[in-house]
Every structure is written in structure tokens, then in C-alpha cells.
Design goal:
Blueprint (H helix, E strand, L loop, with lengths): L9 E5 L20 E2 L2 E2 H11 L4 E6 L4 H6 L4 H9 L3 H13 L1 E6 L6 H6 L2 H4 L4 E4 L3 E4 L4 H12 L3 E6 L9 E5 L10 E9 L10 E9 L3 H6 L11 H8 L6 E4 L3 E4 L3 H13 L5 H10 L1 H5 L3
Parallel strand pairs: 1-4, 1-6, 4-5, 8-12
Antiparallel strand pairs: 2-3, 6-11, 7-13, 8-11, 9-10, 10-12
Bound molecules: uridine 5'-triphosphate.
Uridine 5'-triphosphate (UTP) binds next to α5.
Length: 302
């Protein structure tokens, strides 16, 4: 353990998936750029990383993802336009995020799975622990979700996966962990993992603890991912890489204290949109009034 033990400096954002659940919106526009109120989904995750003390952002992109790079780049013409017209508040708003982070990009030539997306970041991540944030999962939490996980990581000194208890009927959409009940009390919401399985059948699920889109990983994951073969769909799954890693070190699960929205599917996105609009001081009141005025709402059951 070096002096840097416990600190996380880099966050990987895999964003090379095809977003098929959101077609046709995602045909020419990445799902990471779908807008929640006035910010693209991925910016929520980037701001969470920054608020958790992590400002080196590594984004894994693929074909058709240029809008993400443009979004985090300096927009010279736009900035001078706003400056000339004295629109300083807007100028500050768009400058803030580019100034706060140091972004690198790496291409995943083919979408060969989340595990493969993490593997292609090895040169940029190097030999240190790092975070993985799936931007689709937008988490409203205080302290920020990633910060909570970094605090757990500092204590357990091993990989930490964010988990959430999900309804039985949804469990087959997730990686699922089996908890090691003999591990004793590791702190609130912290479990030691005995096993993990990607998208089990309902009847085979070892628990209702589903892996969600936040991970703190150690650099030995890269060797494990290299040793992991593709599944039936031709993808290298991160869950399977973690299962390999579990043979050589303890891995932990942590139940985040916060509200998560899966914006990668239509219903989840709509819920997130309403949730965040209602949290905005400038929009909450008129928006709530509008929602209450909808005839379909006042007649429907609760
Ligand atoms: P998803 O399972 O949400 O897949 O990926 P997807 O392809 O993006 O979306 P659907 O299911 O077709 O609608 C989880 C995360 O992993 C990234 C995605 O961008 C998303 O953030 N990913 C997935 C990659 O970066 N590369 C891949 O090969 C697969």
C-alpha cells in the first residue's frame, strides 16, 4: 500500500454501446447525450465524479459519438458570442464543466461488451485503482454516489461494486451478487461478495442485490478481463471478469444511499426527467402545476 492508497483519481465512462433500447433517438445521437431538463445524461455522471474528487475522465467512445467530444470541448465561437452579449451566467455555466475536468478519449473499435470497453482503457488508467461510471444510471445522492463508494474503498481496500435491491421480476436484467454471510459486519450497506452472475434466470438469482452502474476497480481487473471469454452474444462481460478476479482477492458490494434512475430505457428516462425537473427551483412550481392539470392524471388511480 503506497501513500496514494484509498484515493481514486480517474473515472472511466464506457459510452460505446449502441443504445438499441432508445432507437430511433440513438440512430445518429448517442444516448449519453439525451437531455434531462437542460443537461445531457452523461454530464450528471461527470459532475458526480468531480464532486467526488475525481477529475480525470476517460470516455470510451465508438462510431457516431462525436457529440460527446464536442460537448466537453471548449466552444470558442459560442463563448465569444456569449461574452460579447454580456451573458455571463450562461458563459460561466458552459465553461465550468470543461474547466473542472481533464478528459481523454479512447475508441472501442467494436462494441464487444462492457468488459471489453473497460479493457481498452488500460493504457490511460495505468496501474492504479479507478472508478467506472455507467452514465445511464443517474444517481441523486448526498454525498454523491461515487464519493460514498470511495469512502468504502478506503476502508475495505478492494474492488467495490454498487448494488441495489431490485424487484424479483427485474433481476434477470442485471448482474447479481451472492453475499458471503460469514464476513461479519463491514459497515452499513457493505457486503463481501461470495459469487456473482450476469443476467441469471429469476429462479437462479442468488439474491435480489443487482449490480448498478458504479464500480471501483483495481488494476488487476485488466488481467482478469483478458482471461475472460466472450459469452453467447459475443460480448466480454465485466461481471464475468469480476468473477475471475474474485478467485484471487475479496470483492465488496455496497448499497448506495440515494435515488437511482436507469435512463437507458424509455420509462426510466421519463421518470428521471420528471424527477429532476421537480427538483429545479426555477421549474418545480410551474411544472408541478402543469402535471396536476393533466386530465389523465386527475382521473387515474394512485
Ligand atoms: P448497455 O447494456 O446499456 O448497452 O451497456 P447499450 O448497447 O449501450 O444499450 P442497449 O442495451 O442496446 O439499449 C452498459 C454500458 O456499457 C457501455 C454502454 O455505452 C453503456 O454505458 N458499453 C456497452 C460499451 O461502452 N461498449 C460495449 O461494447 C457495450
Amino acid at each position: 500500500m503506497g501513500a496514494m492508497s484509498g484515493t481514486i483519481r480517474k473515472a472511466v465512462f464506457p459510452a460505446a454501446g449502441l443504445g438499441t433500447r432508445f432507437l430511433p433517438a440513438t440512430k445518429a445521437q448517442p444516448k449519453e447525450m439525451l437531455v434531462l431538463v437542460d443537461k445531457p445524461v452523461i454530464q450528471y455522471g461527470v459532475e458526480e465524479a468531480v464532486q467526488s474528487g475525481v477529475d480525470n475522465i476517460v470516455i470510451v467512445t465508438g462510431r457516431g459519438k462525436n457529440a460527446i467530444e464536442d460537448h466537453f470541448d471548449v466552444a470558442v465561437e459560442l463563448e465569444s458570442y456569449l461574452e460579447q452579449r454580456g451573458k455571463t451566467a450562461l458563459l460561466e455555466e458552459i465553461r465550468k464543466i470543461t474547466r473542472l475536468i481533464n478528459v481523454s478519449y479512447v475508441r472501442q473499435g467494436e462494441p464487444l461488451g462492457l468488459g471489453h470497453a473497460v479493457l481498452v482503457t488500460q493504457n490511460l488508467v495505468g496501474n492504479e485503482p479507478f472508478a467506472v461510471i455507467l452514465g445511464d444510471d443517474v444517481i441523486d445522492a448526498n454525498p454523491p454516489a461515487l464519493k460514498q463508494m470511495i469512502d468504502v474503498f478506503a476502508r475495505v481496500d478492494g474492488p467495490v461494486l454498487a448494488v441495489e435491491r431490485v424487484p424479483h421480476e427485474d433481476i434477470s436484467s442485471y448482474g447479481v451478487v451472492k453475499v458471503d454471510e460469514s464476513a461479519g459486519n463491514l459497515g452499513r450497506g457493505v457486503h463481501r461478495i461470495a459469487d456473482l452472475v450476469e443476467k441469471p434466470r429469476r429462479e437462479d438469482a442468488p439474491s435480489n442485490l443487482a449490480i448498478i452502474g458504479r464500480y471501483i476497480l483495481t488494476p488487476d481487473i485488466f488481467d482478469s478481463l483478458r482471461a475472460t471469454t466472450s459469452d453467447r452474444t459475443g460480448e466480454i462481460q465485466l461481471t464475468n471478469g469480476l468473477r475471475h478476479l474474485l478467485r484471487s482477492r475479496p470483492i465488496y458490494a455496497y448499497e448506495i444511499d440515494g435515488v437511482r434512475h436507469d435512463t437507458g430505457n424509455k420509462l426510466g428516462f421519463l421518470k428521471a426527467l420528471v424527477y429532476f425537473a421537480l427538483k429545479r427551483p426555477d421549474l418545480a412550481e410551474p411544472f408541478r402545476k402543469y402535471l396536476e392539470s393533466l386530465p389523465t392524471l386527475s382521473t387515474s388511480s394512485r
